Amino acid sequence: WIWRDKRQRILPPSPPGQPLIGHLRVIPDRHPEFQYARWAKEYDTDILYFNVLGRSIIVLNSIEAAHELLDKRGANYSDRPRFVLFEVMGWGVTLTFLRWSPRFVLHRKLLQKSFTQSACKAYQPIQAEEARRAARAIVADPNGWEIILRQFSTAVVLRVGFGIEVQEKDDPYVKMTLDVEEATGQGGVPASNVVDFFPVLRYVPNSIARLSKLFRPLIHARRTKRFIQRLHDAPWESVESSIRAKEHLKPSFVHTQFDQYLVNEAAGKPNDAMIEDIKGIAGAITIAGGNTTWSTIIVCILGLLKNPEAYAKARAEIEDVIGVDENRDLLRLPTFEDRPRLKYLANVLHETTRWQPLSPLGVPHATLADDEYNGFHIPAGSVVYPNVRAMSRDERHYSSPEEFCPERYEPVDRGGRGEPLPDGPFGFGRRACPGKYLAMSGVYIVISTLLATMHLRCPKDENGNEILPNIVFSDGLSGVPGSFGCLITPRSKHAEVLLGC
Ligand code: HEM
């Protein structure tokens, strides 16, 4: 009776639950997106309903349902549930987790206008410089490729957000992002823990919490809180006083916003964005933009290793667009001006986001009012997960969806499959990722620079057979790939010269 709607309205299909606790034990702890997709097939529906301890949960399994509800009816689906576990973890005023409120509107407006497609052009020189620096670092230390690429994405968001430049080696901020990723990754699917359902349980002492596995994420959140706070506070503290003293002259989001704040303050004018807001928004750029971009670069390399034909085509296209000398050495490095002509590479990047969507269940939205979809009732206050992974595997849209196949987006009359570009990986409606253009410019410049200057190969076993990476993705907010072997070596001396080694 717990999840029967009082007015006998029909709720979306769901598997059987248990008395009182509903589906608490029915939903898998780890990678629930796979089981959601199986249930959707079993019940022949694109919308599922769950009730966990009295809270309604809706899972959308098709792009059509996500478009209809999260995009078209976005005004009703733009709230977030309260992420109590993430609050315990120390996530402060971070846009990703803000409920619908004037503060949300302010943060969203400031972030969105700073990262439109045209505003992102201003950051391209930073991204190109960091991509080349990363490629040079890989030439010097091929085994360090993964951490060097992480350094790239951390460097970009820190420069864009705070005007801070990271060190070439052992940078403390890179270590901080690693800690934060570990902390967040092990927090499980957002808004799905027992403390998210019963916020008062966040006060359960560790001595009692240790007795049940339900509280494991709570203990983990308390243990890792300091990592998240450090990444929120450290960059701000390192620039605040110099901006106040007008010493910090590198352009950045914080510099522009904080300068304006100080000007208004001196003139006795009110400020819309207070210091806590500026700090929170800049923190969101660093935290939401670093690991996400890095992970997408790594997945792209993985896809190219798994599909040597796609790798060869992407490289050939770069040769075509840039031109080669008699040794097949490129005449120059790729730039952002080449991007519109590198059409196959664009499809490689689309396929990367479809093949292994970074957030398989997105970041959950929440409904502000009751709604109805295909005759099913959606109660106000429901937590809504877009099952982006299920959408990316929808065989009505994608043939052989497990394959990494950039050609699937090419028109049929040019030998492609004419399949639609993925549009769930960056979320939906009024909460869709505001950093999409910045992120994909970063992925583009790194991958094109690597393809232009390096060989990317799988390592070989003692019999000379290639060891194909078989990767496990982490659970939780982002599905980050585990480490894998990849040999990245310069194509030629000429390539090293182009990079400025
Ligand atoms: C390839 C890299 C990235 C991917 C795959 C990605 C993906 C996502 C997804 C799925 C969401 C949730 C959208 C929703 O709720 O519907 C999101 C939100 C967000 N992303 Fe990204 N993101 C990436 C890079 C970035 C970057 C570089 C930034 C920095 C500017 C950023 C900032 C944010 C913020 C602030 C939110 C919260 C928006 C809100 O709640 O209103 N992301 N991102």
Automatic annotation (TrEMBL):
Keyword Magnesium: no
CDD domains: CYP64-like
Single GO MF annotation: oxidoreductase activity, acting on paired donors, with incorporation or reduction of molecular oxygen
Entry keywords, A to Z: Heme, Iron, Metal-binding, Monooxygenase, Oxidoreductase, Signal
Record has Phosphoprotein as a keyword: no
Required cofactor(s): heme
UniProt superkingdom: Eukaryota
Binding site for heme: C433
Gene3D superfamilies with a match to the protein in the record: Cytochrome P450
Family statement drawn from the similarity comment of this UniProt entry: Belongs to the cytochrome P450 family.
Protein name (database record): Cytochrome P450
Organism: Xylaria multiplex
